[in-house]
Amino acid sequence: MVCGNPSPIYRAPPYRACKEHILQSDGLLAQFAATLLSESKAKREEGWWVVIGDPKSNTLLSIKRVSLGRSAKVRLDFVCGAPGRHNYTLYFMSDAYLGADQEYKFNVDVEDAASESSDSE
């Protein structure tokens, strides 16, 4: 699976954010799975869990299950911490393939909504 260029973080007061990604299958896992499934005669739908977590506090911020054909657009909404920079990790976990999980680190800069509105005046 290939993760497209991440879109920017959009923030709405107070301290909410969303993260959007375009997920695309490279087809290699599907070919491998087709070989395995033809041998076992089992039908299995490929599914992915898209998760945002905070490794520092070991907390889960958002999770969504996605059925991925060739491509899927995924939006995850989550609540950020207090103002400042936060380091999060975006995880892609397969429920069908071992060893296919991926993770990407990203940062979110949270500004205080009150200071942002006073800056724009």
Automatic annotation (TrEMBL):
Coiled-coil ranges (or none): none
Species: Pararge aegeria aegeria
Domain SEC63 intervals: 42-106
GO biological process, one term: spliceosome conformational change to release U4 (or U4atac) and U1 (or U11)
Listed InterPro entries: C2_domain_sf (IPR035892), Ig_E-set (IPR014756), Sec63-dom (IPR004179)
Annotated localization: Endoplasmic reticulum; Membrane
GO terms assigned for molecular function: RNA binding; RNA helicase activity
Protein name listed in UniProt: Jg14260 protein
Domain of life: Eukaryota
Keywords: Chaperone, Endoplasmic reticulum, Membrane, Transmembrane, Transmembrane helix
